[in-house]
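Sequence in, structure out.
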Amino acid sequence: MGEAGGLTMPRDGAPPSAAASVSLLEQLRALGLRWVEELRLTRNRRTMVSIRGRTLRLHHAYVQAPLVVHRAVVAFVMARGSARHAARRDIVEWVAQILPDDRPLRSERTHPDDLSLSEHFALCHSRLNAIQFGGSLGPVVVRVSRRMKTRLGHFSPRRGEVKPEIAISARHVRHHGMADAELTLLHEMVHQWQHQSGLPLGHGPAFRDKAREVGIPPRATRKVD
């Protein structure tokens, strides 16, 4: 989904046109969308995909989304089980690219109720560092974020006096479970490896090669997760 890397979410301007809604609905139907009779494009940043009855509501940014995201929308609406879950993750990752202002705030601290989770992920970081990276990764602050709404995780390199950190979404843990969250942690550790290796943060060939090496899907997105 690298094609969408430079897309930003418009905050104002003219409302989405009826022609754009019709055109996008035709595109989604060509990709397999069924039984949806109406597509409404909105400017609601909090509801990126919503289906009620036979009406599908999408944020207007989907008009410019790459084909892979349109396929994910169709799968999210039509599929069930693991296929729907995979489509949801693709959508979440793309949304994270176009909502740069949703980055975890540095002033946020782990909620007291999540401290045990944070400690668990810190231990996981040490264990995975030894197993997958030969202990080469430096220490980072690992915290749990209740502010992250569209991202699953985030790596922030050291800046000035601010220590490097990895944040894991509390919502992600709650909705998808600890096993998925630990895979997200490993994903962010690959970003940490990129940074320590002097490579740009991103999901290019170096990231994909390292992701395969440590056993996680090489998702070509810049969420950063």
